[in-house]
């Protein structure tokens, strides 16, 4: 992931603070207890195969700006979807989504109570 962060930063899309904010306040929190493939599996109504059908063309279009994209289909999709469907069967995704949402809520509450790393005076 660091190559992407350096690329986005180098291209002027956002600065280092923006990248850290996205990771610590966004997907980084989610990815601390479910991975990116699990996240995708939960983000489409019928799991990873549905996700690939709905979004793979758009992902490829965006990815082309970073070089030759790897298509998410065929054996790659079968391996990833097979693993995910074993871990989180499509018919039980609603339950897993409820669990994910509870963990995210609990983590947000925890983060609100975290003390700052350094006070504003200590940073000066």
Derived from helix and strand composition plus strand pairing, the structural class reads: mainly alpha
- Overall average pLDDT: 84
The largest sheet, given as strand count, sense and whether it forms a barrel, is: none
- Proportion in β-strands: under 5%
Instruction: Specify the overall morphology.
Output: flat
State the helicity in percent bands: over 70%
Give me the count of strands: 0
The SSE order reads: HHHHHHHH
User: Roughly how many Å is the radius of gyration?
Assistant: 18 Å
The poorly predicted ranges are: none
User: Separation of termini?
Assistant: 31 Å
Helical segment count: 8
Keywords:
single chain, 124 residues, mainly alpha
């Amino acid at each position: 992931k660091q190559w992407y962060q350096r690329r986005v930063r180098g291209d002027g899309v956002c600065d280092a603070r923006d990248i850290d904010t996205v990771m610590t306040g966004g997907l980084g929190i989610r990815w601390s207890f479910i991975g990116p493939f699990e996240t995708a599996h939960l983000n489409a109504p019928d799991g990873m195969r549905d996700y690939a059908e709905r979004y793979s063309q758009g992902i490829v279009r965006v990815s082309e700006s970073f070089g030759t994209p790897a298509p998410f289909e065929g054996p790659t999709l079968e391996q990833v979807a097979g693993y995910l469907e074993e871990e989180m069967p499509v018919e039980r995704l609603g339950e897993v989504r409820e669990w994910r949402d509870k963990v995210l809520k609990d983590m947000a509450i925890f983060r609100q109570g975290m003390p700052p790393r350094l006070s504003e005076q200590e940073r000066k």
